[in-house]
Amino acid sequence: MWKFEQGVYEWCEWWRGTKTQLQATGIGLGAAFPGEPGVAKSVDVVDLRGLRVKIDSKDRSLPCGVFFATCRFIEDKEDDAYLYEDDGCLQPFDGVTLRRCLYGCNIYRGTAEALVAGGLIVDEKLPGRPGRGKLQCTYRLECMNGEMVVNRMGKNRYQIRMSVAEDEVVRREILLRQRQLDRDAARLAVRRSREKLTGPQLRPVELQPRRAIPAGWRIITNANPPMRDATFRLPV
After folding, report:
1. Facing residues of 43 across strands?
2. I want to staple 202 with a disulfide (CB 3.0 to 4.6 A). Which of 74, 104, 216, 232 is the partner?
3. Across the strands, what pairs with 6?
4. What share of residues in the chain are helix, strand, coil (percent, to 5)?
């Protein structure tokens, strides 16, 4: 039988256990779990506290029937949303979107025609063109001692990841560190205020009365001591 496990990462609470063990802890009561007919490999359920818990069966290191469940301390619209300076996508040129990454680069996406019209690249340097890689090309930007990485995202969709100037890199690094500190503080506050699920929660079992021995029967015992009646069990 799998030994139930639980713990805390810096960003979430986590549990590893079977469906019975997780439900005994108060996670996914009455819900369908991954692996059941018509259920995806990852599902969102709620626990006894009303919090969203993600149950995943994608971890190949776990045996069949054992799930990995996580509950985030703070919910982000996107897991990596804090890595970008802007909440949404900017449009510096027609048909081109821009995201300013705090790791020191700008990310442009658009069609070949839109990227070329915006002056971001020449058509001959796009992936798939004669003499270029099929999916990715990397170019050196001598003007800022950086690089430009061009990826093909679809039939006529491309992404350009372009380095920014050194002073802009420093500014974004300061902003990123501040965001990370803010996220850590928010996680810690939620972690301290959150009631912990300690499970599995065991409940008493009503023992059935012993059956009467029919007349003429004998009780046969062996050398082993009799087993004690179970006083607790996991709920099914």
Report:
1. 55
2. 232
3. 15
4. 20, 30, 50
C-alpha distances (whole Å) from 149 to each of 76, 101, 140, 143 are 28, 14, 9, 15
CA distances from 23 to 8, 12, 16, 67 (A): 19, 19, 12, 11
pTM of the predicted protein model? 0.61
CA distance to 102, 170, 179, 182, 194, per residue, from 185 (Å): 20, 23, 10, 5, 14
* In contact, 102 and 84? CB cutoff 8 Å: yes
SS3 182: helix
Gap between the Cα atoms of 173 and 164, Å rounded: 12
Report the C-alpha gap between 65 and 74 in whole angstroms: 28
Q: Are 20 and 236 in contact (CB under 8 A)?
A: yes
Per-residue pLDDT of 191-220, as tens digits, reads 888 888 776 654 433 434 445 555 555 544
Q: 131-144 pLDDT, tens per residue?
A: 999 999 999 988 77
What sign has the CA pseudo-torsion 79, 19, 22, 14? negative
- Could you give the CA distance from residue 70 to residue 105 in angstroms, rounded to a whole number? 31
